[in-house]
Amino acid sequence: MKYFYILIVTVLVQVSGFAQKADAKEETAVNNRMEVLRQAMIDADGVKLKALTSEKLNYVHSNGNFQNQAEFIEGIVSGKSDFVTIEFQNQNISVNNDVAIVRHILAAHTKDGGVDKDIKIGIMLVWQKQKGNWILIARQAFKI
After folding, report:
1. Range of the structural domain that residue 104 is part of
2. What's the pLDDT tens digit per position in 52-103?
3. CATH no. for residue 132?
4. Residue 45 · residue 78 · CB < 8 Å
5. Using CA atoms, how far apart are residues 79 and 73, in angstroms rounded to an integer?
6. How many domains are there within the chain?
7. Is beta strand 133-143 parallel, antiparallel or unpaired with respect to 53-60?
8. How many CA atoms lie within 13 A of 5 on its CB side?
9. What pTM was computed for the model?
């Protein structure tokens, strides 16, 4: 009986290690998508922004304004939201099955309407793995 318990503990430790490796792999994949998103926002690349986001995107700004996918992309591509630089500070990624939650501080320099401005806001993003790709389904910004 003693050997049976040792066997069970050994199997559980191995399964736990496998799950941690899988989570780390998915965290890296989400982190890579975050970097593509960051660069696409700076470059105002509508094609990449569309590929990264859900058609049912819920994108909420720190002032409470809500945008869907089309409005979010149009705001970036049109230059209404013109990011010169974006830095994600203190980023934390948590993966649970096909959902990832990303939290960070967004520090950016913008030139909205030709007016230079530095912003620093809190962000929470929700990504979902769909057909093998991590897709942004929700974003909530808040003042810090």
Report:
1. 2-143
2. 999 999 999 999 999 999 999 999 999 999 999 999 999 999 999 999 999 9
3. 3.10.450.50
4. no
5. 10
6. 1
7. parallel
8. 2
9. 0.83
Q: Which residue has the tokens 């939201």?
A: 81
CA dist 123 and 115 (Å) reads 23
| Per-residue three-class SS string for the chain | CHHHHHHHHHHHHHHHHHHHHHHHHHHHHHHHHHHHHHHHHHHCCHHHHHHHEEEEEEEECCCCCEECHHHHHHHHHCCCCCEEEEEEEEEEEEEECCEEEEEEEEEEEEEECCEEEEEEEEEEEEEEEECCEEEEEEEEEEEC
CA torsion sign, 76 to 137 to 122 to 64?
positive
Is-contact 95 26, C-beta < 8 A? yes
Cα angle 50, 92, 80 (rounded to 5 degrees) comes to 35
Per residue in 20-51, pLDDT (tens digit) is: 555 899 999 999 999 999 999 999 999 999 99
User: Diameter of the chain by CA atoms?
Assistant: 75
State both tokens at 103.
């939290």
